[in-house]
Structures are given as structure tokens and as C-alpha cells.
Amino acid sequence: MLPLSTAVFPIPSADETRKLKAIQYSKEYVKRCRKKGVCVICGSKPPRDGSSRCSSCLEGCASRARDKIARLRSEGLCTRCGKCPPYKDGQTCRECRVKDTAEAHGITAARYLDLIDAGCVICGKKENLHIDHDHSCCPAKTRKGCGNCVRGALCSEHNLAVGHLEREDAMEVISYLLATSSDSPLIKQFKDPLA
């Protein structure tokens, strides 16, 4: 039996491999695969519903992603960028967390950091902060906010309180408290603002 030589089966260089992958995943290639009803990775099996990949290729990608995350965790690195150590016992570094949160709210990373640095707009706390935004502006189904509805940063307690006050029955709750509570200084202030 003859040994396999590189003349018969040339081994592509790293640059050639990147070019081949770029061609494979080009829009035209994906369109052809979808038209044929085959997986864009292996090109033979039918894709799973709602995907362009077959079940085994999807599982292979998921398995590689799980392996990568496990390796990065064991090395003590961010599971997103793989460069920095995770932030406060999490999986991602501070930089990746800032980018993700800012992007989710439709604001820049610089604006996000400004909001966080300012602290809770109600009490001034600097820990456990959340970005407050008008939930009626951007539908919950969209993964990205518009950025126009961001109001500021709130601590966990005030974020929950504002979330409850944004409900439709908030005025009924306030009316109930005004009618039944007499000892609370806050309720007294609402009943008689000049006192």
C-alpha cells in the first residue's frame, strides 16, 4: 500500500483554510444549501427546523462552545473574550460585561459607565446598580433597547420599586396607602405636602 503524500492530498495552509471557510459560509453558499434543503456545515443532512444546520452539526458546535467555555473557566479567563479574568466571580470580565449591558440598552459603553459612576439616582448607592429605562418604549421581545428611554442607574431596591410603580394598578396602591396609613412620615407628606 502506498503512503499518502501531500502531493496527492495537499494539506491547506492556515490562510487557505480561512479562505475556504469564508467561501463556505458566504451568502451564496448558504442560499444554495437552503434551496437544496441541506445543512450549511456538512452539506448532506437536512437542517433542523428554524436553523441552517442539521442536528449533529448543531450539537458539534454546541459541544465545541461548551468545551471552550470550560477551558476558559479552568484557566480563570473571561468566557467571552478569553483575555481578562472574570469580574466578581462571574464568567465575563468587566469590559465584556460593560459592552454587553450597554449594547442591550442601546447606549455607548462610555454612557453606561457614566450612569454607573453617578450611582443610584434616588439614594446615591454605588453597588448592585441596574440601568433604569421606560419599559413601555422598547418591547420586551426585542433584545436591544433604543437608548432614548434610559433614565439612569438605580440600586436593586429602587429598581424593584420603580418596576412595581410602572404597573397599571400603581395609582390604586398609592390610594390604598394614603387611605389606610397614618403613622408613616412619607404618607403624611403625601396627604399634607405643606406640613
**CATH topology group of the domain at 120-195:** His-Me finger endonuclease fold
Query: What is the residue-averaged pLDDT?
Result: 79
Helix content: 40-55%
> What is the overall number of helices?
8
Q: What's the total count of β strands?
A: 2
Structural class: mainly alpha
User: CATH class of the domain at 120-195, anyone?
Assistant: Alpha Beta
Tell me what portion of residues adopts beta-strand conformation. 5-15%
Widest sheet: strand ordering: 1-2
| SSE pattern, N- to C-terminal | HHHHHEEHHH
Sheet bearing the most strands, described?
2 strands, antiparallel
Account of the 3D structure:
The chain is built from 8 helices and 2 strands. With 195 residues, it is mainly α. Among the domains are: 26-74, no CATH class; 120-195, His-Me finger endonuclease fold (3-Layer(aba) Sandwich), CATH 3.40.1800. Helix 4 (94-105) packs across helix 5 (109-118). The longest helix has 20 residues, at 55-74.
List keywords for this structure.
195 residues, mainly alpha, His-Me finger endonuclease fold, 8 helices, 2 strands, 6% strand
Write the layout of secondary structure elements.
Blueprint: H1 14-24, H2 27-36, H3 55-74, H4 94-105, H5 109-118, E1 129-133, E2 150-155, H6 156-165, H7 170-180, H8 185-191
Antiparallel strand pairs: 1-2
Describe, in short, the structure shown.
The protein is mainly alpha-helical. It is built from eight helices and two strands; from the N terminus they run αααααββααα. 47% of the residues lie in helices and 6% in strands.
